């Protein structure tokens, strides 16, 4: 099979080369060579795509999203969309993600994520590689428990396993493993449901049980954490990433740094609602969209792109690049791209995310340079998407 050469400026997930080339070997699905023109051996008879005015970047990653496939952004709809319908709508969402240059996603809580992941791996449907948590772990009466429903109905419909006490928490992790989950998602706090006040959920003892059981099974733990108490508890328990991380203090950030914990601020979940809700909520959100991320940056944390999109009409999959744009407004274009490639890959635990010899050939060709103009990663500017050495768009 002929090799494929992608020509243009190359951002390899860290550094930028103005006039470069990436050689892909479709027989191995891997990158064969990458570098400056003149320094890369270009094979004869190769198919060449790209050229002047385009850039080659690693396939993008969204490290925090959901396959809720709801029309509205509403907890009751999230738990009550029939699973078959959610799966069918998600097939549409997977196509949109791939078309938008997302070649890997980490799905943190849904009822169909592990099955979608399996269908993609089997080649039954097209889509990004999916690292799914299966259902999330939450305490009874927690933030994602619709309190208007009888508990047994809520448990039956929820995208979370409700668990209380260390042994139920361990059992819930074992359920995730049984489901084929490849990461564990835990709600270490509420969100803004209780009048804008943020409360920790689970005790440190429960969180430690979850982390111990997940790590024993070889899975990482992603903790939804709002507020200093929840972040501190999750960090003490030894989770691998803090999701949302609203109200990040310098002290908590330094603890995260010392333990190598990733920070996934999910700015997209809050942009547009800066002025909604109680004064407490407004203050926390406005701080989060800028200062929290700066605290993370100054502490040297690895910041990761995660949109928290659920696939509703408000945040349709395929528009996930918006998170990279919002990040770029605080940390600049290069680091925002690193957040969606190198850092996301490290956080998720996959080999892609960098363009280098021997890496999976998940690549995107865009018009223009995203380092100069971040909108170059918007779907309208994407020329080609390659997944595992195959041009899928
Ligand atoms: Zn989420």
Key words describing this protein structure:
single chain, 393 residues, alpha/beta, Urease, subunit C, domain 1, TIM Barrel, 2 domains, 7-stranded mixed beta sheet, 4-stranded parallel beta sheet, 12 helices, 16 strands, 33% helix, globular, binds zinc ion
Describe this structure in words.
Residues 56-392 form the Amidohydrolase-related domain. The protein has 393 residues and is an alpha/beta fold. The protein has 2 domains: 4-59 and 353-391, Urease, subunit C, domain 1; 60-348, Metal-dependent hydrolases (TIM Barrel). It is built from 12 helices and 16 strands. It has a 7-stranded mixed sheet, with no helix packed on it. A 4-stranded parallel sheet has the order 10-11-12-13, sandwiched between helices. Strands 5-6-7 form a 3-stranded parallel sheet. Helix 8 links the parallel strand 12 (241-246) and strand 13. Helix 5 (166-179) runs parallel beside helix 6 (204-216). The structure holds zinc ion. Zinc ion is lined by residues 64, 66, 108, 308.
């Amino acid at each position: 099979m002929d090799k494929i050469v992608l020509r243009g400026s190359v951002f390899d997930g860290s550094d930028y080369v103005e006039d470069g080339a990436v050689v892909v070997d479709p027989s191995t699905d891997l990158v064969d060579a990458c570098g400056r023109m003149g320094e890369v051996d270009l094979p004869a008879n190769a198919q060449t795509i790209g050229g002047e005015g385009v850039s080659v970047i690693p396939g993008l990653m969204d490290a925090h999203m959901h396959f809720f496939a709801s029309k509205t952004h509403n907890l009751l709809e999230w738990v009550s969309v029939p699973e078959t319908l959610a799966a069918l709508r998600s097939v549409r969402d997977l196509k949109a993600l791939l078309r938008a240059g997302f070649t890997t996603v980490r799905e943190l809580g849904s009822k169909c994520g592990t099955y979608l992941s399996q269908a993609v791996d089997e080649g039954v449907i097209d889509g990004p590689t999916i690292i799914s948590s299966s259902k999330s772990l939450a305490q009874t009466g927690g933030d994602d428990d619709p309190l208007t429903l009888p508990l047994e109905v809520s448990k039956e419909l929820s995208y979370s396993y409700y668990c209380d006490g260390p042994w139920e928490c361990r059992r819930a992790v074992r359920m995730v493993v049984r489901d084929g989950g490849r990461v564990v998602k835990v709600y270490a706090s509420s969100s803004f449901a209780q009048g804008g006040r943020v409360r920790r959920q689970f005790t440190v003892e429960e969180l430690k049980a979850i982390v111990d059981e997940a790590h024993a099974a070889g899975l990482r733990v992603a903790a939804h954490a709002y507020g200093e108490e929840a972040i501190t508890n999750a960090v003490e328990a030894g989770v691998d990433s803090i999701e949302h991380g609203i109200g990040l203090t310098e002290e908590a950030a330094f603890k995260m740094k010392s333990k190598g914990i990733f920070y996934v601020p999910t700015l997209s979940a809050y942009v547009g609602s800066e002025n909604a809700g109680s004064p407490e909520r407004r203050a926390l959100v406005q701080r989060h969209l800028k200062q929290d991320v700066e605290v993370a940056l100054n502490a040297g944390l690895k910041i990761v792109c995660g949109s928290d999109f659920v696939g509703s009409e408000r945040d349709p999959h395929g528009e996930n690049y918006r998170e990279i744009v919002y990040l770029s407004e605080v940390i600049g274009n290069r680091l925002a791209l690193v957040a969606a490639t190198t850092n996301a890959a490290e956080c998720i635990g996959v080999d892609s995310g960098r363009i280098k010899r021997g890496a999976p050939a998940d690549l995107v060709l865009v018009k223009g340079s995203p380092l100069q103009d971040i909108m170059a990663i918007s779907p309208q500017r994407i020329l080609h998407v390659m997944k595992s050495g195959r041009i899928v768009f």
